[in-house]
Amino acid sequence: MFYNQPLAIRFGTEFLRHVAQVDHLEPYWDSLDIAVAWVRASGMAYLSDRLASFLRNGGHVSVIVGIDIQNTTREGLQALLDLEAHGHCETFVYHNEASGVFHPKLYLFRNDEEARLIVGSNNITQSGLYVNVEAGLQIDTNVDASVVGQALDALSSWKDTTSRLAVRLDPAFLAQLVSDGYVIDEARALADMRAARGTRAARPRPPLFGSRRVIPPPLATAPVRRAPAARGRAATPAAATAAPALPAAAPAGTALLMRLRKASLTTRTTQTQIPIRVADTFFHGVTEVQSAHSGLRHGIHEANARGGRNTMKLEIPEMADFAQPVARFERTPEGVVYETYDVGSPQGDQIMTTLQEGRGNNTTQLSISDADRATWWRPI
Fold first, then answer.
1. Residue 135 three-state SS
2. Are residues 187 and 332 in the same domain?
3. 329: helix, coil or strand?
4. Using one digit for the tens of pLDDT, what is the confidence trace for 241-250?
């Protein structure tokens, strides 16, 4: 499976699903090995509770993290240390004083028979998990496959403390990393990022590139309903966020993929229907959407049948000539923004692939049982 973030996949959403294994189709993983260039509290805020539950249920976690370019923060490393209270967890810090940046992004899940290897560009930061344009490749294979052995060899070499390039993290070593200036506080890291953006924005010249906002999902504020399972599962961390709040029944996240159904194949080819289940969750309180292509806004209108609300209707002019339209909707502080493509285009094919993959693990829902005529949707 190929990950294209944020268009068709959000790595954080997929990672939490792999760890939680709330779907009966997912195998239960016994161990998780991670190697990333950077870790911050902004990323661990999404992962800590789920990883703690994984550890309490007997899972093993091993993390190798770099500290180059001051992108790893004290709070991010502390969050990794805090996991050790919940079970078998170890963290190693890798750094080469001479040259070179520790830059891998590798996630390896294993049990006695199976393995899931994900190699890509996602660090454990809020942006790396949800916002940045990132890419990754997931391979599901046997635990004794040669590629798994090669990944394990790489992980072992990176946490080999005899080389003195890797050091096992403990409270004393974290304090030393901070005092010697290897890692900084999260607040300072965020201030540096804002200052850099402000400097670019203050330039008198017009920007060279376009602009499109991507919003990370809110951290959970209500318990997550979980499927029955033999072992416990954990909800995502509870914390406040500046992102638009969704009602408790809404799907997690601020982005939604949809395969749209045209209202008619011969007339009103720009009109689509939003099923009530989506209207009452992701689109709760939304009366219009804005096109990322034209900037124009289009209203969402209620349609009634048999004396009650039947569906919500929406005009999407861009899909007039599309044979099989798909769309990505994003909740932003300014409202819901959409982009739409035809299957057969590069963007449309990636969105459709994610929707089809979701039918296999029950993350894609259908408006009716007839898949050919149904509207499909999947939160990411």
1. strand
2. no
3. strand
4. 333 333 333 3
Give yes or no: residues 156 and 36 share one domain.
yes
Residue ranges in 245-344 assigned as alpha helix (H): 276-279
User: Quick check: 135 and 121 in contact, CB under 8 A?
Assistant: yes
H or E element at residue 117: strand 114-120
Residue pair 216/130 in contact by the 8 Å Cβ criterion: yes
- Output b/e per residue, 284-297; b: 16+ Cβ within 10 A: eebeebbbbeeeee
Q: Whole-angstrom Cα distance, residue 312 to residue 296?
A: 19
DSSP string spanning 280-295? Answer: TTTTTT--EEEETTT-
Is 235 part of any domain?
no
Distances, alpha carbon 59 to alpha carbons 35, 238, 301, in Å: 17, 22, 49
The total of other beta-carbon atoms located within 10 Å of residue 248's CB is 12
Q: How far apart are CA 364 and CA 25, in angstroms?
A: 14
- Residues facing residue 118 across a β-bridge: 107, 138
CB 13 within 8 A of CB 96: no
- Residue pLDDT, tens place only, 50-62: 999 999 999 999 9
Return the amino acid letter for 8. Answer: A
Domain-located, residue 371: yes
Task: Assign 45 to helix, strand or coil.
Answer: helix
State how far Cα 121 lies from the chain centre: 12
**Does 157 lie in the same domain as 17?**
yes
- pLDDT beyond 90 at 88: yes
CB 193 within 8 A of CB 209: no
Distance CA 123, CA 140 (A): 21
Look at residues 375, 374, 378 and name the one whose alpha carbon lies nearest to residue 361.
378
Same domain, 293 and 176: no
Give the C-alpha separation, 315 to 263, whole Å: 10
Its pTM stands at 0.85
Question: What is the 8-class DSSP label of residue 157?
Answer: H
Tokens of 191: 């201030």
Which residues, at least 6 apart from 261, have a Cβ–Cβ distance to it below 8 Å?
272, 273, 367, 373, 374, 375
What tokens does 117 get?
């290897």
Higher pLDDT, 347 or 198: 347
